[in-house]
Amino acid sequence: MQFSKGRVRGGDGSGPSEGHHEARGPASADMPGDVPFDDPWYDALSSGWGEPSTVAAPVPAARQGQDDDVAAAEVYLEVQGSPAFQEVRSRYRRFVVPASVAFFLWYVAYVVAATAAPGFMARPVAGAVNVGLVAGLGQFLSTFLLTWAYARHARLRRDRAALELRWDTQELTRGARGGAA
């Protein structure tokens, strides 16, 4: 079976084991460094296809100890309890909860009207356009309007405060880890 970027995957029963996929890179199976794998979800773009097999990605050094993790956890707990974080969360909730409730009620009203009042939904509005069609198109329109309103609200009322909070958190975390981040 042929997949994108010239990769070939087994799975037709002719592979090494039934139920597992064997795949090889763009190079031939006889080329050195061509390693088979058994992961069907393998992503060639994130795994380094086309890179020489002798070059390994640098591995970050292991953390010095658990003290760094504890200090970082304390920083995050401190930030979570801060008034700035609580303000960002309350701004988020003040928009999302009412908007979600309103949109859910609008959706349920549409579904209930379509099932309980088919005569009303079939009432013509203009030519072949009926109330059900207008309400259905209104569902799409309201989805786009809600998405726009959410993005605008986030941009105007939360993004700047959240970005400042993120920077402060990163600086505190760097300080807790002794400057290594």
From TrEMBL:
Pfam families in UniProt: DUF485
Stretches of the chain forming a coiled coil according to its record: none
Keywords: Membrane, Transmembrane, Transmembrane helix
TM region(s), chain numbering: 95-117, 129-151
InterPro entries: DUF485
Record region (Disordered): 1-40
PANTHER family: INTEGRAL MEMBRANE PROTEIN-RELATED (PTHR38441), MEMBRANE PROTEIN (PTHR38441:SF1)
Protein name per Swiss-Prot or TrEMBL: DUF485 domain-containing protein
Organism: Streptomyces longwoodensis
